[in-house]
Design brief:
- This protein has 2 domains: 77 residues, no CATH class; 98 residues.
- By secondary structure, it is an alpha+beta fold.
- A hairpin with a 2-residue loop joins strand 4 and strand 5.
- It has 2 helices and 5 strands.
- Strands 1-2-3-5-4 form a 5-stranded mixed beta sheet, with no helix packed on it.
- Helix content is 54%, strand content 13%.
- It is rod-shaped and about 140 Å long.
- The relative contact order is 0.06.
- Keywords: Coiled coil.
Length: 175
């Protein structure tokens, strides 16, 4: 079953064709899009489709993945042959299956990466806390050192004063 659907909110991008597969019992459009023409109509589609090429490209738009397929008129050439349509349907189902597996793999990878990211974030937070604690202790030690240096200076001045007094007493005549 083929249904026309416009994916883009921009009026400059033409409508695209969605494939619905009744054998898979999919009742809403899945994100596989068949471009009906690869001539100049899709030349200005923000680089999603390149003119005259068979390609598969991925684009992210409004937090959805859109998979663009150019089947280059396969559906129209095999429209009258049910066997060819069945084979094409099976090929598409295989592609869907492979893409679903790839998507599941990517989702698992994303879950693992988000777990690792949370772990790294907690390690970073702990490191920042340790750094803050160490800096606080360092500042405290610097303050203690400054106090000790001031005390040392006072004691040296007192020692010098006492040494002068002692020298003055030694030099003073004894009566």
């Amino acid at each position: 079953m083929i249904q026309q659907h416009n994916h883009s909110p921009r009026p400059s991008v033409p409508s695209v064709t969605m494939i619905l597969n009744p054998s898979l019992k999919i009742f809403k459009p899945f994100p596989f899009v068949v471009m009906s023409s690869m001539n100049s109509a899709y030349n200005n589609c923000s680089g999603i489709v390149q003119k005259g090429r068979k390609n598969v490209q991925f684009a992210s738009k409004h937090a959805q993945l859109l998979t663009v397929y150019n089947l280059s008129q396969k559906l129209q050439t095999h429209k009258d042959d049910p066997e060819e349509l069945t084979l094409e349907d099976r090929r598409c189902e295989g592609k869907i299956s492979k893409l679903s597996l790839a998507l599941e793999s990517r989702e698992k990878e994303l879950v693992n990466l988000s777990y690792e990211l949370k772990k790294e974030a907690s390690l970073k937070y702990e490191a920042l806390e340790q750094n803050y604690t160490i800096n606080s202790l360092l500042n405290l030690k610097k303050q203690e050192l400054n106090k000790s240096e001031l005390e040392l200076d006072k004691l040296q001045e007192r020692n010098n004063a006492l040494a002068k007094e002692l020298a003055a007493l030694k030099l003073a005549p004894k009566d």
